[in-house]
């Protein structure tokens, strides 16, 4: 097919899929139906656009096509139509949860779907998985990678979550103000998972998926407008801005990985860092800190430092100590160990990593093996470092990461043979 048409379809699908799906779910009240007809609309675009040209408003074209397909399905299945009508009636009776924004910037319709996917009636492990699959458009293997679980397990979770929404008649709406604070943590976790996949893609030819990272930031800004007093919303936005500010320096001209030590900090987005730093102050003011606020404070310390050597590593370690209390997890412990290595030396960091070696979640997490390999190399234990690099290489998902690990493996093997 025409490359321009194919590129337009891909771009529209990437940018509009969540919006399209949310509009269809809002109209028809069924997630499976919405996904099916959204996919059919994309297939129709692939068929018609090469012959007739890309429409001036491709997103609107896709929405119109998908709606027509949905109506056709419902007309053919009256029992299905009756069930959908009942769900839609319940959603209509619920009414709008939030008043219109005085500036005319209405809450994105996708927020209804976010809060539905993060509904407390769903098991906690299913909420983020469903949202990433439906609203971020991630493939099931990518969602599985984000949550460090096998692909079949993740596929079962997604099917189970959809069935629960359907059977429990969970309405597709943004909750009212009294309910929002209880529902918020799940939504924040979902938004951060989207950002994480954008910051460090699980698979593919590129290290970063900037579209996902920027989408997560946009959604966090909307959440902050909806809940300006919620400090963890502010903390999450601050964290993502401070990390995303390094995006241009994280890869070289060939797309290869550039580690923090070697990044040109002149390429960091200083305006984004300054916005993030100001938000950190808000996130940490007025009560005990939350996990996102603490992580944002760590990111701010990196943003303030002239280089790795002058980073306030004692303060970074102290903040990780706080974070481990708030959200104890193997990944947080891994990050703390890396910071300890910078403060106290590679032997101290390696000792902490070795204590984590039996953690099941870290066995399939390539940054753990890569961190061990780096510390072993710094200690001159090159044969062991090479073995750890091989393990990391087997687990890494993107080609830039694999290329970097291959180069480090070759260096470690060469040093080991020389020794």
From TrEMBL:
<dbReference type="GO" id="GO:0016987">
    <property type="term" value="F:sigma factor activity"/>
</dbReference>
<dbReference type="GO" id="GO:0006352">
    <property type="term" value="P:DNA-templated transcription initiation"/>
</dbReference>
<feature type="domain" description="RNA polymerase sigma factor 70 region 4 type 2">
    <location>
        <begin position="117"/>
        <end position="165"/>
    </location>
</feature>
<keyword id="KW-0804">Transcription</keyword>
<dbReference type="Pfam" id="PF08281">
    <property type="entry name" value="Sigma70_r4_2"/>
</dbReference>
<protein>
    <submittedName>
        <fullName>RNA polymerase subunit sigma-24</fullName>
    </submittedName>
</protein>
<dbReference type="InterPro" id="IPR013324">
    <property type="entry name" value="RNA_pol_sigma_r3/r4-like"/>
</dbReference>
<dbReference type="InterPro" id="IPR013325">
    <property type="entry name" value="RNA_pol_sigma_r2"/>
</dbReference>
<keyword id="KW-0731">Sigma factor</keyword>
<dbReference type="InterPro" id="IPR036388">
    <property type="entry name" value="WH-like_DNA-bd_sf"/>
</dbReference>
<dbReference type="InterPro" id="IPR046531">
    <property type="entry name" value="DUF6596"/>
</dbReference>
<dbReference type="InterPro" id="IPR013249">
    <property type="entry name" value="RNA_pol_sigma70_r4_t2"/>
</dbReference>
<dbReference type="InterPro" id="IPR007627">
    <property type="entry name" value="RNA_pol_sigma70_r2"/>
</dbReference>
<feature type="domain" description="RNA polymerase sigma-70 region 2">
    <location>
        <begin position="14"/>
        <end position="78"/>
    </location>
</feature>
<comment type="similarity">
    <text>Belongs to the sigma-70 factor family. ECF subfamily.</text>
</comment>
<feature type="domain" description="DUF6596">
    <location>
        <begin position="183"/>
        <end position="283"/>
    </location>
</feature>
<keyword id="KW-0805">Transcription regulation</keyword>
<dbReference type="Pfam" id="PF20239">
    <property type="entry name" value="DUF6596"/>
</dbReference>
<dbReference type="GO" id="GO:0003677">
    <property type="term" value="F:DNA binding"/>
</dbReference>
<dbReference type="Pfam" id="PF04542">
    <property type="entry name" value="Sigma70_r2"/>
</dbReference>
């Amino acid at each position: 097919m025409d490359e321009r048409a194919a590129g337009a379809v891909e771009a529209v699908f990437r940018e509009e899929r969540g919006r399209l799906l949310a509009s269809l779910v809002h109209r028809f009240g069924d997630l499976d139906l919405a996904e099916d007809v959204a996919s059919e609309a994309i297939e129709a675009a692939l068929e018609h656009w090469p012959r007739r040209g890309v429409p001036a408003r491709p997103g609107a074209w896709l929405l119109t096509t998908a709606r027509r397909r949905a109506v056709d399905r419902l007309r053919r299945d009256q029992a299905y139509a009756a069930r959908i009508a009942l769900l839609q009636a319940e959603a209509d009776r619920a009414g709008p949860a939030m008043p219109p924004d005085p500036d005319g910037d209405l809450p994105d319709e996708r927020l209804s779907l976010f809060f539905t996917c993060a509904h407390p009636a769903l098991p906690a492990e299913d909420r983020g998985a469903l949202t990433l699959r439906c609203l971020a458009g991630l493939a099931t293997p990518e969602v599985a990678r984000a949550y460090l679980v096998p692909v079949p397990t993740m596929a079962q979770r997604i099917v189970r979550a959809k069935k629960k929404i359907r059977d429990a008649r969970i309405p597709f709406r943004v909750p009212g103000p009294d309910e929002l604070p209880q529902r918020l943590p799940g939504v924040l976790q979902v938004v951060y998972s989207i950002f994480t996949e954008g910051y460090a893609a699980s698979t593919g030819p590129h290290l970063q998926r900037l579209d996902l990272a920027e989408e997560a930031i946009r959604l966090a800004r909307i959440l902050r407008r909806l809940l300006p007093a919620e400090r963890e919303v502010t903390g999450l936005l601050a964290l993502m801005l401070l990390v995303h500010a390094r995006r241009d320096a994280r890869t070289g001209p060939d797309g290869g990985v550039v580690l923090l030590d070697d990044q040109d900090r002149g390429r960091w987005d200083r305006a984004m860092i300054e916005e993030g730093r100001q938000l950190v102050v808000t996130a940490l003011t007025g009560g005990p800190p939350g996990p996102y606020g603490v992580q944002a404070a760590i990111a701010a310390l990196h943003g303030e430092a002239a280089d790795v050597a002058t980073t306030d590593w004692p303060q970074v370690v102290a903040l990780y100590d706080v974070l481990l209390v708030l959200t104890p997890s193997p990944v947080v412990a891994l990050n703390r160990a890396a910071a300890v290595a910078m403060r106290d030396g590679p032997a101290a960091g390696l000792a902490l990593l070795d204590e984590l070696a039996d953690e099941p979640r870290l066995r399939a997490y390539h940054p753990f093996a890569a961190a061990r390999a780096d510390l072993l190399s710094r200690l001159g234990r090159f044969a062991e470092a090479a073995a750890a690099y091989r393990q990391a290489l087997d687990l890494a998902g993107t080609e830039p990461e694999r290329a970097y690990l291959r180069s480090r493996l070759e260096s470690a093997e060469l040093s080991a043979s020389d020794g």
